Structure formats: C-alpha cells, structure tokens
Automatic annotation (TrEMBL):
Recorded superkingdom: Eukaryota
Keywords tagged on the record: Repeat
MF annotations from Gene Ontology: RNA binding
PPR repeats: 6-36, 37-71, 138-172
Family matches, as Gene3D superfamilies: Tetratricopeptide repeat domain
GO terms classed as biological process: RNA modification
One matching Pfam family: Eplus_motif
PANTHER family on file: PENTACOTRIPEPTIDE-REPEAT REGION OF PRORP DOMAIN-CONTAINING PROTEIN, PENTATRICOPEPTIDE REPEAT-CONTAINING PROTEIN
Protein name: Pentatricopeptide repeat-containing protein
C-alpha cells in the first residue's frame, strides 16, 4: 500500500477497515506498519475485541509484550473487553495486576472496563470492590456496575443503586435504563419493566431507542406475553430490526408458538436473508412441537438457498488458558477424554432421572444421534 511508514495514515486506514468489519484488511495494514507505537497496538487490539474476535485480541497483546511495547490504559480496555467476552476471569485478574505493575492510573474508562469484565465473568464481588475503590465516578461507570448487578441476579441491589444515583442528582441516560430493563428480564419482573419503560419519556424526558423496545420485547416474550410483545413491535415509531424480531422468536420457541414464529421468521428473512440461525431456531420450534416434517422442509429450503448453519462456539478458561469448543468438533487435543467423561456423567445421571431433551437438539442431527448426551452435541 505504500503507507507502512506513515503511522497516522495507516492507523486511520486500520480504523476504517475495522469499523467496516473488514478485519483481514485491517490486520494487513497493521502488519505492513514498520514503526508501530502503542496507539497502533491498542487500536488493533480494541478493534479485534469490539468485532467479536477476543482470542485474536489476546494473541496480539502477547505479540505486543514480546515486542516490549509498554501498554497504556486504552490497550488494557481492549484486553479486558476480550476477557469479558470469553469469561476468562483468571486472565482478567492477571491484566488487573499488570495495570498495577505498570503504575497506570485507573480512570473511569479503565475502571468501567474492569467492572464490566468482572461482572461478565460472574465475579460481582470484585466488580463491586473495584467500583468502591474508584474516586472519580462518571455516569458510564455507574451504568457498568448497575448493569453488572442486574445481570448477576442482584436486581434489587441494582434498583437500589439506581435510586441512589437519583438522590445524588445524577441524571440517568438511555444506557442506564437498558441496564435496569435487562435486570428485569433476567428476574422476570414484567410489571417493574413496564414501569421503567414508561418512565423513559414521562419522568426522564428521554426518547426511547430501539434497544429499549428490544429489552421490553424480550421481557414480555420470555414472560409468555407474546401478543403484547408483538403489538409493541407493531406500535414502535420505527421499523424493528433483526434483534427485536429475534427476541420475539426466542419467546415463540420458549412457549412453543409455531404460528407466530412462522410470521416472525418471514420478517427476519426480509431483514437478513443470509442468517441461517433464524431458520435453525424456527426448526427447533417445529421439532419441540413434533413437526419433524416441517423441520426437514426448512432444512431443504436452507440447502436450496445455499445457507449453512454456523457451528456454535464456546470457551472455557482453565489455569489461565482459554480452550475453544465448537459443536461437533473433535479437534481439541483432549477431545477423547472429554467425550469419555461426558459419557460417564451421562451414565451416572440416568439412574437419577436424567433424560436428554432431544426435542431441542438442532435439526441437522440424525435421529440415531439424539440419544447421545446433549452436552456432547451442543456445548455452547
């Protein structure tokens, strides 16, 4: 490209590619850069993390350390975000120690990243301790701890902290309300969710965003109020996106409403015809209601349209090492032992009443495979 020596131009180009989701091209620009400063490293690490590539973000951080480039606060925001996505608590704690070792000041931005990482890794105690240790607290930091409490089941504490911010004169923003609504969803608090949703305009003078409607649709759908959730979508002042319709489709699966699910799928196909996940979810709804022929027909439609199901993926951290698993994949070096252990657990659980829920097994699993322990087939 001829831009490898111009750090400013190359960094701008890298950022542009990342925002467009073209990570391969972004990495190509990064690799061509001759003199990479901490800003370049931090930008690439953060872009990996924000584009759903947490392992790549952590691997690049390792390269950065090998090149003896001292990380700054911005770099640690990226690696902590990657840890949050992976649920890698032990790694996150090591990065927290590195922050102290590098004598970096934990400003609200870095503090928010730490709180978010701890909360998403399930360590709400560490998240709260970090929050209490922060001398400078902005609204984003408050939002992080409120959301963290809510997502970890401490909904009443989240409500209490929200009330505390009001008493302190801290005006909530749209993200604050999203955190509260998500907490209501996790706890199944439909009435409280309605109250907070109604307060967005009448009390806080905020304009509801599509994310707020999405939270409410999710809350109502999980609670079995599918008609109300559908009507809320129809009454929205803007066109619903795939996330909103997807929340309703998830409720249809949970409550086995195939008629509404078929209608929702039509909306989703118009919005994202390339997304095989929508077909898979509807197929699972057909399966759970015994409509195996319809599930098979949906599979044929996918084949005709050249759609392939993206394998599920999950991660687990052990001794500071992140292990990746994909559905049906046996490439892990300890795969044989893992499957053997799952078989042992299944054998021990059956006398205790364990029975695999084969009606929720993905539709491309053959009939004879449905007796295999579900955890072996679907590990994410």
């Amino acid at each position: 490209m001829g831009m490898g020596t111009n750090v400013f131009v190359a960094t701008s180009l890298l950022d542009m590619y990342c925002k467009c989701g073209s990570m391969d091209r972004a990495r190509g620009v990064f690799d061509e850069m001759v003199d990479k400063d901490v800003v370049c490293w931090g930008a690439m690490i953060n872009d990996y993390a924000s584009n759903g590539l947490p392992k790549e973000a952590l691997e690049l951080f390792s390269h950065m350390q090998r090149d003896k480039v001292k990380p700054d606060c911005f770099t640690f925001v990226g690696v902590l975000s990657a840890c949050a996505r992976l649920g890698a608590l032990e790694l996150g704690e090591k990065f927290s120690c590195l922050i102290d070792k590098n004598e970096l000041s934990v400003n609200p931005i870095l503090g928010t990243a730490l709180i978010d990482m701890y909360a998403k890794c399930g360590s709400i105690t560490r998240a709260w301790r970090t929050f209490q240790g922060m001398m400078e607290r902005d609204l984003v930091l408050w939002n992080a701890v409120i959301s963290g409490l809510a997502m970890n089941g401490h909904v009443k504490s989240a409500f209490g902290l929200f009330a505390q911010t009001e008493k302190m004169g801290i005006r909530p923003d749209g993200n604050t309300i999203i955190g509260i609504l998500c907490g209501c969803t996790h706890a199944g608090l439909v009435d409280e969710g309605r109250r907070f949703f109604d307060s967005i305009q009448c009390i806080y003078s905020l304009i509801p965003r599509i994310e707020h409607y999405g939270c409410m649709v999710d809350l109502l759908s999980r609670g079995g109020l599918l008609v109300e959730a559908h009507q809320l979508i129809l009454d929205m002042p803007f066109k619903a996106n795939a996330v909103v319709w997807g929340a309703l489709l998830g409720g249809c699966r949970l409550h086995k409403d195939t008629q509404l699910a078929e209608h929702v799928l039509k909306q989703l196909i118009e919005l994202e015809p390339w997304n095989s996940g929508n077909y898979v979810l509807l197929s699972n709804i057909f399966s759970v209601t015994g409509r195996w022929d319809d599930a098979e027909n949906l599979r044929l439609i996918m084949n005709e349209r050249g759609l392939q199901k993206t394998p599920g993926c999950s991660w687990i951290e052990m001794d500071g090492v992140v292990h990746e698993f994909r559905v049906g994949d046996q490439s892990h070096p300890l795969s044989a032992k893992i499957y053997m252990k799952l078989d042992e657990l299944s054998t021990e659980l059956r006398p205790l009443g364990y029975k695999p829920k084969t009606d929720f097994v993905l539709f491309d699993i053959e009939e004879e495979e449905r007796s295999i322990p579900l955890a072996v087939i679907v590990r994410s």
